[in-house]
Write a structure and sequence with these properties.
single chain; Hypothetical Protein Ychn, Chain: A; 4-stranded parallel beta sheet; 4 strands; globular
């Protein structure tokens, strides 16, 4: 099987449902551990661009740290990877990375992944 993580954080949404960054990080860790134990292919996706990245240490960056280093495949928009953060993660973990121009370009990429 395969799981796709769309990486990002919305404090407004999390707050409304009683979640915190810490509880979400812990939940993601459990889900990723399950995936690794059960050989579930992990795809990490970030299409929000730099606007949805935030400063180092921000909630969005914490979500990237919680998911991207454990992915088997990373897909990002060029705008999301302007600082090459995702490239460095993918190279460090020796996993493929695909950069797309627009979020809608994901459709074609995912069709190839799931053929």
């Amino acid at each position: 099987g395969t799981i796709i993580f769309a990486i990002g954080a919305s404090l407004k949404g999390m707050g409304a449902s009683g979640l915190t960054i810490e509880t979400e990080e812990a939940r993601l860790k459990r889900v990723i551990e399950y995936c690794k134990q059960n050989k579930v292919f992990i795809v990490a996706v970030h299409v929000g661009g730099t606007a949805l990245r935030g400063a180092p240490g921000s909630d969005n960056e914490k979500m990237i740290d919680a998911v991207a280093p454990f992915a088997d495949y990373v897909i990002v928009t060029k705008e999301s990877n302007k600082d090459a953060r995702f490239s460095k993660i993918a190279q460090g973990k020796k996993v493929p990375l695909t950069e797309v121009d627009y979020a809608l370009d994901l459709v074609g990429i995912l069709k190839q992944v799931f053929q």
